[in-house]
Please model this.
Amino acid sequence: MRQLLRRGATAGAVAAFAGAVAVCAPAQAAHASTSAHCPTSTSIALLPAGSGYLFPNLFASASACGFADGGTPYHFTVGTATSNAQTPTGPHTYVVNNLSVVCSTVTVNGDSLFASGCLPG
Model:
């Protein structure tokens, strides 16, 4: 009888411990993200010594992109992206089709969308 009580007490302690671990375990953090497709965008790039990324920022129409802020990171695909780059040899315009970038911040003012901190996506 004594052995049966010990087994019951041990099983109860194990179950209580398992329940405490389940209650105290942190929940997985949700990862927010925003994706948008823009038909067109423009960018301004300063390229020292002719190097750097051509699309460090995007200017576009929020409504044309169907932009709804779901949080960072901000994934954009752009049908036709134009970059007006200032290089040591002067200004140049570059056009890229089907550009894919990931940006760290977005500001919307009216229908104007400005994304910055953009890198190739």
Observations:
- The chain has a mean pLDDT of 81.
- The first strand starts at residue 34 and ends at 46.
- Helices lie at 2-24, 62-65.
- Residues 2-24 form the longest helix (23 residues).
